Structures are given as C-alpha cells and as structure tokens.
Amino acid sequence: MRFIDLRSDTVTHPTPAMREAMYQAEVGDDVFGEDPTVRHLEEMAAERMGKEAALFVASGTMGNLVALLTHCGRGDEVIVGDRSHTFLFEQGGMAALGGITPRPIPNQPDGTLRLEDIQDAIRSENVHFPRTRLVCLENTHNMCNGAPLTAEYTASVAQLARAYGLRIHLDGARVFNAAAALNCAVRDLVRDVDSVMFCLSKGLCAPVGSMLCGSADFIYEARRARKVLGGGMRQVGILAAAGIVALEQMTERLAEDHARARRLAEGLAEIPGVRVGPVYTNIFYFWLNDEVSISPEDFVARLKSQGVLVLGREDGRYRVVTHYWITDEDVETTIRAVRTVISGQ
Ligand SMILES: *Cc1c(COP(=O)(O)O)cnc(C)c1O
After folding, report:
1. Is the pLDDT score of 345 beyond 70?
2. For burial by CB atoms within 10 Å, which of 10, 91, 242, 312 has the most?
3. Ligand 1 pocket check: which of 7, 82, 199, 321 to mutate, most ligand atoms within 8 Å of Cβ?
4. What radius of gyration do the chain's Cα atoms show?
C-alpha cells in the first residue's frame, strides 16, 4: 500500500534525475578538498545565497551547530526564538557541545521576534553577564505555521544587531519556500544575515545534506568546526550530486506545494469539527474541536488505516506538510479520509 505521507517534507525520496546524477558523480576526497562535485555544489549554493562561500554538511542540525560554534565562544549567549527549531529540537547542542547559552525570547505567531524583545535581551558589559554574540532567526518558521519572514523584517533585525555589534544566523531550512511564498529571490531574504543554513533534504528532495553559507573567512572556520564534529566526509560528491539537482530543478516548483497546502486546508476547514490554522507555505496545522471525541492516537491510527499519514503533536495539533510526492489527487483523497474518520467516530 502506498501511503500519502504528509508528516513532513523530510520523507521525500530523491527524484530519478537525482539518482542518475548520484550514479554518475565524479568524486574525490572532500577532506582534501578534492571532490569536484562537492566543490561545484558549494559554489552554486554560495552564488544562490549571494554569499562568498558555502559548506556542505550532513544535516540542518549540524549546519546550525557549526554556525553557532563558529560565531560564538564558550560562555557567549545567543538570542533565539522560544519556538525555534534550534532551541526546541536540536538537543541544546549549542550548550551541550559549545558552552553557548541560548537566550529564548517569544516567537510571535508569524515567526518573528519583536525588535523590543531582542533589544531588551541584549546584555550590557558587566562582570556578571555572559556576552551576547548572535541573534538567530528561522525562515520559514516551522512551529509558527510555516510563516515566511520578509526581507524588510530581516533587515530591521540586522540593523538592530549591527548597532550592538552582534551577528545574525538564519536557520533557513526552508528558505526557498519563503522565497516562493513571498515571490522574491532567495538572496534578497538572506542579504542581511551573516550566515544561513538551508536544507537540501526537505522540500528540495535530496536524500541527505544541508548547506551553510557566509563569508569566505566564516566558512574557513566553519570547515574546522564541521571536522571536529566528525562531519568531514570523503567521496561525498555522491550526495552532493543530488544537491546540485535539487538547486537546479526543485526550487522553482515549490509554489505548487503551497497551492496544494492551501487546497488541502480549505477542504479540511469544510469538515465539521476541524479547525485549520493559517497557511503560508507548505506546512500547516489543524485541530479537532472538543465535540469530536477521538483521541489523537486514534485519529492518527485511523487516518493511517485510510492510507494517510499526519503528525500528531503533544499540544493537540496535527501537522501536515505538502511536498513533491503529494499530488492533487492525494489532496482530495486526504480530505475524504479525514471526513470518513471523523464521521465514523
Ligand atoms: C528540519 C529542520 C532543521 C534541522 O534539519 P535536519 O536535517 O533535520 O537536522 C533545522 N531547522 C528547521 C527549521 C528545520 O525544519
């Protein structure tokens, strides 16, 4: 049985073009800087982001951690959103491995941090205090309804950060989705940040990998940080080859995923007992009203028996994510399946 897998865009399998490129990839020892396919991918990524250099890393988590270890030293503090992936879902790696303190401030429902809240969190020079080094933003914002941050907002945070001598890192796991949603070039969205990580392995369908981009000096240091984390890989052009296809073929089509997410949300919202959150990109959340007496475990299991996979969250929300392998027909099938499960409660 083929499942309609809406749990995440990380479930995307590589496309046939990616498998072919992986098979054909020219490779070398990348720790020696001799893998031409990795070098090509790193140049492409830097160019797309409008940065001097880029580094291929195994995952988004590794990319964010490498960035934090490169920007900050032990005892430094980082201002992060309290709903950010880096704060919630990366095992506190910055503290555990880097001796860096996260300073969480509230994420607004649209994924932004208030400028006043950032300013209030910046430490003054005082023997009691850690030193604030960095502000982290997330675009699109996973836990805040997949909302995109605009270039203007990012510029306003950058201006504030610079006034205090701070740097900015962007967790841009889905920054190409943000560009599609805002109908702008991705480089406009990252112009004002010092570093950006984006994932090849989510909506862009590559099997493995993320890119960290920034200045040449930053990437030189980041390469050292990646190595100490065990992330120096060898004939990794096999993986980078899929990343090249991702950048060449998969970024311009993301608006299709967004349109399907909107259609799915509309269909679900028409079902009595279902409430749907805002839809900005390819991720959205929905809830069941109290009159629907079905436990979250049951709901997920019954949908699964209808061939549909969604992610049930501890806070009672369900998450759905559209992606390359979800068709218009899958969207309609999913709406029917939710209707069937709820009416058969
Ligand atoms: C998925 C994700 C990451 C981490 O990427 P992995 O490749 O899963 O380690 C980081 N930030 C955000 C916003 C994500 O959605």
Report:
1. no
2. 242
3. 199
4. 21
